[in-house]
Specification:
By secondary structure, this protein is mainly α. The chain has 18 helices and 3 strands. It has a 3-stranded antiparallel β-sheet with strand order 1-2-3, with helices on one face.
Length: 419
């Protein structure tokens, strides 16, 4: 690494990264602490393993900063192919944990390739978007990029790990920045809204709500224009009602029972504080018990009593809420918002399309992980097993997000060095 790149590095972003990973290790230690823990470097304990992966992350981060900036675009396809092969290899060599064959096991350590494939996917999407002939208005372009996203998502669903597969939808945000028609976003949001409305109410009430929404849209659009055709609204209405009638079939035949239970709990259709809803209920209790300033480091009674399952992974925000309180929770949210905005602002300064799209991909991945994980802990979204970047226990996640950050740092530091 030369002195020039060191001077050009975004040291504020690096500082935020260091604070997040340090705070993460602190809370992993707290959420797994017991009398058997003699040292934070005990490799039989989660905190010891997390520190090892932090060391690996920093080591690879140094290598990434020393690599010529052109490397990442030139080897994007190769990294994607390797990532896909790693996912396929799981069906032969993978280890099954909690019903999902998502890990390679090496002694006492496991590696989850679905996390590393996010890096490869970010690179290949950026590479595809940077090609001169790429036009998001062409169906062939959308099919090609959609294929790059759907292939790893499909292989991850087969593990089965639908939660991790869902995250690949984050890569659509960079596409909207690069000119993808926003009608796709409105279509997606509309389908999700129709799905939730139909699940929340009886089909008759849902249809009345749909008719009212379409009628209101027609009224305001007609008021703002002189001529508005009626048939598009009638078509939307017919398709919406048809989709609503298909929701029950989709919900009961495509979703697994555990997913149906979790969605029903979030929608308030079921009350289950001892079964499938136990995790969410205990997480909310832990966060609420922390009050404004928290109970203090290692003083969380819910945490120490192991009331919240998976508290060092999926529900680590409940440890933060209990021991560090509202202040600690807001501090973490502030750090993530600062990290995401910092990446986006530097991405906007890029004149190289590959680098801009990649950086937007990094920001989008962090944002979706952050939003879903904290939403799970607060009971606002169903539990789908998504870690909180840099903070949740999980070496593969920490390594993958660290690689994403350091590649962004390299691209940002060299944004004036064009081809």
């Amino acid at each position: 690494m030369n002195n020039n790149i060191i001077a050009r590095l975004d040291w504020l972003l690096i500082l935020i990264y260091i604070i997040l990973v340090t705070f993460g290790i602190t809370n992993v230690y707290s959420s797994t602490y017991n009398d058997a823990v003699t040292s934070i470097f005990d490799l039989t304990q989660p905190v010891g393993k997390q520190i090892v992966f932090l060391g690996l992350s920093l080591f690879f981060g140094g290598l990434i900063l020393a690599i010529n900036v052109k490397f990442f675009e030139q080897f994007a396809m190769l990294s994607y192919i390797v990532g896909i092969l790693l996912l396929i290899g799981l069906f032969v060599f993978g280890k099954t944990i909690s019903g999902a064959t998502s890990w390679y096991s090496f002694g006492g350590t496991s590696l989850q390739p679905s996390e590393l494939v996010k890096v490869a996917t970010a690179l290949i999407i950026a590479k595809s978007m940077s090609l001169f002939q790429t036009d998001l208005k062409k169906p062939t372009t959308l099919l090609k990029i959609g294929g790059f996203l759907l292939l790893p998502a499909f292989l991850i669903i087969l593990q089965p790990d639908p939660g991790s597969a869902l995250i690949f939808g984050a890569f659509f945000f960079p596409l909207f920045r690069e000119g993808l028609n926003y009608s796709y976003l409105f279509l997606f949001l509309g389908l999700v809204s129709l799905f939730l409305i139909t699940l929340s109410f009886q089909i008759g009430i849902a249809i009345v709500i749909i008719i009212a929404i379409v009628a209101i849209l027609f009224y305001f659009i007609k008021k703002s224009r002189r001529k508005v055709k009626v048939w598009p609204f009638l078509l939307v209405l017919a398709l919406s009602i048809g989709f609503s009638y298909s929701v029950d079939f989709i919900f009961n035949n495509i979703f697994e029972q555990r997913h149906r239970d979790r969605i029903n709990i979030v929608l308030g259709k079921e009350k289950d504080t001892k079964g499938i809803g136990y995790n969410i209920n205990q997480s909310k209790i832990a966060i609420g018990s922390g009050g404004f300033s928290g109970k203090g480091f290692l003083e969380g009674t819910q945490t120490k009593g192991d009331f919240v399952p998976e508290q060092h992974t999926d529900y680590i925000f409940s440890t933060i809420g209990e021991e560090w309180g509202f202040v600690g929770g807001v501090f973490v949210i502030f750090l993530f918002c600062g990290l995401i905005m910092r990446i986006i602002l530097s991405a906007e300064k890029q004149v190289n399309k590959f680098r801009r799209v990649f950086s937007y991909g990094v920001a989008s991945l962090i944002f979706v992980h952050f939003l879903i994980n904290i939403g799970m802990s607060l009971g606002m979204v169903p539990t789908i097993g998504i870690p909180l970047p840099f903070i949740s226990y999980g070496g593969s996640s920490l390594l993958a997000f660290s690689i994403l950050i350091f590649i962004h740092l390299n691209l940002d530091a060299n944004r004036l060095n064009e081809w």
